[in-house]
Amino acid sequence: MAEQKKMVEAITPMEEDFAQWYTDIVKKAELMDYTSVRGCMVIEPYGYAIWENIHDILDRRFKELGHQNVSMPLFIPESLLQKEKDHVEGFAPEVAWVTQGGNEPLQERLCVRPTSETLFCDHYARIIHSWRDLPKLYNQWCSVVRWEKTTRPFLRSVEFHWQEGHTMHETAEEAKAETEQMLRVYAELCENQLAIPVIKGRKTDKEKFAGAEMTYTIEAMMHDGKALQSGTSHYFGDGFARAFDITFQGRDNSICHPYQTSWGLSTRIIGGIIMTHGDNDGLILPPAVAPIQVIIVPVAQHKPGVLEKARELERRLRKTFRVKVDDSDQSPGWKFAQYEMKGVPLRLEIGPKDMEKDQCVLVRRSDRRKTFVPLGGLEQAVAEQLEAVRGGLFQKALERRESMTYSVRTLDEFREAADSKPGFIKAMWCGDPACEEKLRDVAGVSSRCIPFEQEQIADTCVCCGKKAKAMVYWGKAY
Predict the structure, then answer these.
(1) CATH number of the 405-475 domain
(2) C-beta of residue 430 within 8 angstroms of C-beta of residue 472
């Protein structure tokens, strides 16, 4: 137990310094490493395996809905980026430029893609000619670059991995339906696989994506009460199509512009998993994306038959689960602490006494509940325990969010909540951007979303007292 205590002490308690707690976990759980390139990280094998599992879940879902994967260039000519005015202005502060190739200066600067709307539009202008060519349902998995001033592993880095879907549709109604559908896909991933409860809603005009008519978002609450924008879906109308002269012959032979969407989810969701579920002993991973779902720890492995039994159980379980036996010469206590640090959802212990009783011990990482399980029904018991982990994590996160969400009716209540109560604030808003700006200035919060599920907290705006148009979630965010 002394070894386990030492491992635990290696993590700064979140109550003492939440930022350092987060950094300790991403390093000690071997999710990432720093590099010689400012703001860029190495995603280590264990961290990348989490991303691969997220990739696989989403990629299957995208393909079920008819999307195809493509690959676009890394570079965007400046003239191409300039075609959509609002878009380029929104991204200008974050763009990295290539100005020289080899020993020669470039005749035209190349932008390292911060996002790929312009590249897709340039391509779509060449391949869309008729209504029969629509819809175009494309997605790409790639990395993008945004020249962030302040960086943090996974949450905000100069280069990050993501997927970006870009679709074109015959009608506005079809494009809007696509935008809402893909937001639901992200919400289902977060809630059903990642055990992260999210609020679905629309961004205000001030917070929407550059060049979009409408941006939808899912917002999650972290341990410290801050919001994390976890996935977004954008409706562009036909603005980009007009800027890039994308036209098609309609069913009535008229010349039309298609309607466009884009949507994306990035590796920042790994930061969201850490900050939603982790504790002072380390990472806690939802089973769906855990690189190791079950770690088998032989107890008294030097005794006859113990290692052999552990490996036999591994062969049985690996048909259904991601499983590993730790047969190293470290003590069981060290192994317990090590895999708790790495967030493995379920630990299986097997020793001589267990073998005599034809059983094993299952221990859940989320609440450390122990269950003695007959080996004959092991597969079903593991499946049930993993689902109990997922359900427990989701319920705990939901209860935390509910306990840290406050409804306010006056500006004084708003200020007090923002100053002294970490979490979400629900308040009515008149729709005036000036009020949104004032709330940011006086309380240090931003609008997170206008939720689809509306509540009538009051009749008037919390800021100006005029007639309210919508209830908004407000909060501090990563």
Answers:
(1) 3.30.110.30
(2) no
Question: What letter would DSSP give residue 34?
Answer: E
Task: Tell me how far CA of residue 305 lies from CA of 91, 298, 316, 324, 361, in angstroms.
Answer: 62, 10, 17, 18, 17
**Could you check whether the bond before residue 291 is cis, i.e. omega within 30 degrees of 0?**
no
- Indicate yes or no: pTM above 0.90: yes
What confidence score (pLDDT) does residue 227 get?
A: 98
- 401 burial (CB, 10 Å; 0-12 / 13-18 / 19+) is buried
CA distance 158 to 40: 6
Q: Cα torsion at 128, 132, 134, 135 (round to 10°)?
A: -160
Residue 39, both tokens: 């703001």
Q: Is the pLDDT of residue 419 over 60?
A: yes
Q: Is 412 helix (H, G, I), strand (E, B) or coil?
A: helix
Paired strand residues for 231 = 218
**Domain 18-72+120-277 architecture:** 2-Layer Sandwich (3.30)
Q: What are phi and psi of 262, to 5 degrees?
A: -145, 155
- Percent with pLDDT over 90 in the chain: 94
Q: How many CA atoms lie within 13 A of 13 on its CB side?
A: 2
Q: What single letter denotes the amino acid at residue 338?
A: Q
Return d(Cα 135, Cα 131) in angstroms, integer. Answer: 8
Question: For residue 271, what are its two tokens?
Answer: 């930061």
3-state helix, strand, coil in the chain (%, to 5): 40, 30, 35
**Amino acid making up residue 448:** R
Domain ranges, ordered by start, for the chain: 18-72+120-277, 292-387, 405-475
Q: CA 445 to CA 15: how far, in whole Å?
A: 22
d(CA 156, CA 146): 9
Give me the pLDDT at residue 4, please: 47
- Residues 476, 225 contacting (CB under 8 angstroms): yes
How far apart, in Å, are the Cα atoms of 25 and each of 9, 37, 77, 222?
A: 12, 21, 40, 15
The CA-CA-CA angle for residues 274, 288, 67, to 5°, reads 105
Phi then psi for residue 102, to 5 deg, are 65, -125
Q: Shortest CA distance to 401 belongs to which of 229, 224, 185, 204?
A: 224
Q: How is domain 292-387 classified at the architecture level of CATH? A: 3-Layer(aba) Sandwich (3.40)
**Backbone φ, ψ for residue 183 (5° rounding):** -65, -40
Per-residue pLDDT band at 89 (split at 50, 70, 90):
confident
The rounded distance, in Å, linking the Cα atoms of 186 and 58 is 8
CB 473 within 8 A of CB 223: no
Among residues 340, 233, 231, 230, which one has the least CA distance to residue 276? 230
Query: Residue 31 burial (CB < 10 Å; 0-12/13-18/19+)?
Result: buried
Q: Cβ distance 294 to 323 under 8 Å?
A: yes
